[in-house]
Amino acid sequence: MATLDNTFGVLYQTVVISAALYGAGSLQAWYYFRKYPSDLCWMKFLVAFVIVCDTCQQALTTASVYSYLVTNFGNPAIRHHLFNTLIIQIFFKDLIAVPVQLFYAHRVYRLSDGNWIISGFLAMLSLGTCAAYFVKSIEALPLSAIAELASLKTLTIACNIAAAVTNVLISVFLVYHLYILKRGDSRTDDIINRLIAFAFNTGLPTSLCSVAACIAMTVAPQTFIYMFWTIIQGRFYTNSLLVTLNTRNYVRSVIAPSTEPETELTESVRYPSTLLYSTYRPEESNALSVRIDARGVARSEEDFIQAQSKSKQSAVRQ
């Protein structure tokens, strides 16, 4: 049953929490462009695109709250009305979700030594989920009452389940391919454990939002509780991407403290400068280290992962 608390109250809480997460994402974006000016162009474009979509979604959410609580203040009938801005903002949430999921699918591709079957499956699942969300949003645009959203309950639940499955699978594959890189060395295993924790946390918040949205649509379809989880999910996608990119300096500081400017790996590996950020000069030692190129660009954790994978494969061959 729709009440003032689970409609306007929830919508007000949504815009407040969403604004806080949007502010955190904006700060993360500022930090990214300041600390990683030499990143590849496609990565910079990805961050810029996500932030623009994030801003549009936040603006539409705020406009919806303004229409309900200010423009129609004192009008009790408006509680059952559905503004198009609440539906349009879902488009932007999908435009955030797809590139973020494809980014993680690309990481799975890199970690799995170019396994296009797994990464391709994840990419297709992400695109299929986005297409389903777009269909649902297009069908919801003509609706004028919140109660009418119940007619799309089945499609909505299916979309959220697909999104949750996609996020969980991405996290599972990331964690698995990181785990198999362990070699029994305490220092390198500790670094991998940190990366596993990051990988696990990237998909957890968004998956929980999808599950919560399914429950809310099933239990209380005439309220704004479903919208709360849908809107918040977009903020989590943005923040998870930016946190992943911005933790590269942290991982580098763990791998190569400032007192150790250069270290060694177990075999000679040189990666194309168009893909990675630094050059390795491995020798015969098992100690781990990192070199920073002449431009001073911070190395990503993927460099370490790729070198560990190649080192492990070489050990197996020997």
Automatic annotation (TrEMBL):
Species, as recorded: Mycena albidolilacea
Chain ranges passing through the membrane: 12-33, 45-69, 81-104, 116-135, 155-179, 191-218, 224-245
A Pfam family reported for this protein in Swiss-Prot or TrEMBL: DUF6534
Name this protein carries in UniProt: DUF6534 domain-containing protein
Organism placement in taxonomy: Eukaryota, Fungi, Dikarya, Basidiomycota, Agaricomycotina
DUF6534 domain boundaries: 163-250
Keyword Ribonucleoprotein attributed: no
Alphabetical UniProt keywords: Membrane, Transmembrane, Transmembrane helix
Residues in coiled coil: none
